[in-house]
Amino acid sequence: MIRGMTRVRQERKPGVVIYRPQDATGESRRRLADAGCRLHIVGDDEDLDRALAEAGPVHALLLASLKGTRLDRRRLSTLPELRIVSKYTIGVDDVDVDAATERGVLVTHCPTEANWGGVAEGTVALMLALLKKIEIRSASVKAGGWRNDELRGVYLGRREDGYAGITLGILGLGRIGRRLAELMVPWKVRLLATDPYVDASVFERCGAQRVTLDVLLAESDVVSIHCALTSETKSLIDGARLELMKPDALLINTARGEIVDVDAVCDALDANRLGGAAFDVLPEEPPASGARILATDDRVILSPHMIAANQGGTLGPAVPWATDAVLAALGGQVPMHVYNESVIAGWEARFAGRSLLTAR
After folding, report:
1. Which of 147, 150, 92 lies closest to 318, judged by CA?
2. Nearest Cα to Cα of residue 38 among 62, 57, 63, 66
3. Is there a cis peptide before residue 57, judged by omega within 30 degrees of 0?
4. CB neighbours of 18 closer than 8 A, spacing ≥ 6?
5. How many domains does one find in the chain?
6. Could you tell me where the beta strands, DSSP code E, fall in 148-280?
7. Are 228 and 93 in contact (CB under 8 A)?
8. Are 167 and 219 in contact (CB under 8 A)?
9. CA 21 to centroid of chain Cα atoms
10. Rounded to a whole number, what is the distance in angstroms from the first to the last CA of the chain?
């Protein structure tokens, strides 16, 4: 009888599933538990469906990247009491946001400067590594080589002697794209940008000329991708668009792998219709052992989707944000950084002021 009563009390507590917890200190979990939440922790190697089934009533999901799987319509349909999906990350492409919106579920994310600023800094590093041929020069010296014309780098900025400098094309002027533009100001490069969802004033503040995507691809020496993965941007950079680029241009993708047709990039490199590429993200992560991109030469730099993983950065600063979002939603309040803002009015009609927490 006592055990049964204990189980009933436990199930009355709001259920929070934490997938791949990021709070190394455990402070986030302590805050949630102290507020009266029933926690179900899911590790990297655990099956998500099984974990959700075993968790009991789930009112909140707190998670980082889903690592190759997706919180899709089917999974969301198994969680009738869900109020919020709180992501530690900026990106929410591993959540079916449309399905969550239809079900009246808030989706929040954490656009911390540690994350988006880290991506912008990493983009600069990749660009410089390609333009200055850092890896190629290192490999040459280690192999016994020394100075030769093939190791010449590219000077980036315009100069008083008449050198025009390079043109950098930024695809997407969100937080990352804007920071990249800001970082490039001292380099005196020509900036082009395309983004149909931001005002002309943003381009002006960034010192970037607003152009169409086709013009950006045709005129840029370096194209850097910083847009979200959506139905509009999936396979946005395909074979046809790669043909618009200069044959010695560079392509950098630090956004989402599925935005670029990587096989088309390999085709372009094989045909010497592209100067080089750098990818922190790939359509398949990690790539299969026989993936063509792994067999590319030193014109390609690959990184394991870790561009924002920096000392003093990573997802650590996002942990309190994501935790605050869960506590707010379980307390009947709309949290900050709601991604699917169209759901807010309906959500408030159902949950505003209706707290599930026993303590705050």
Report:
1. 92
2. 57
3. no
4. 28, 29, 39, 40, 41, 42, 62, 63
5. 2
6. 167-171, 190-194, 209-210, 222-225, 250-253, 276-279
7. yes
8. yes
9. 18
10. 30
Let me know if residue 309 belongs to a domain: no
Q: Are residues 173 and 284 in the same domain?
A: yes
- For 319-338, what is the mean pLDDT? 97
**Residues tagged active-site:** 256, 285, 305
* Rounded CA separation 207/199 (Å): 13
pLDDT tens-digit profile of 8-57?
A: 445 579 999 999 888 888 999 999 999 999 999 998 778 889 999 999 99
Q: How far apart are CA 333 and CA 353, in angstroms?
A: 6
pLDDT digits (tens, 9 = 90+) for 104-159: 999 999 999 999 999 999 999 999 999 999 999 999 999 999 999 999 999 999 99
CA gap 128, 156 in Å, rounded: 9
**Which pLDDT band, with edges at 50, 70 and 90, does 4 fall under?**
very low
pTM for this prediction: 0.87
Residue 219 lies in a domain: yes
Spatial separation of the C-alpha atoms in residues 107 and 115, rounded to whole Å:
18
Instruction: Provide the domain limits for residue 135.
Output: 116-302
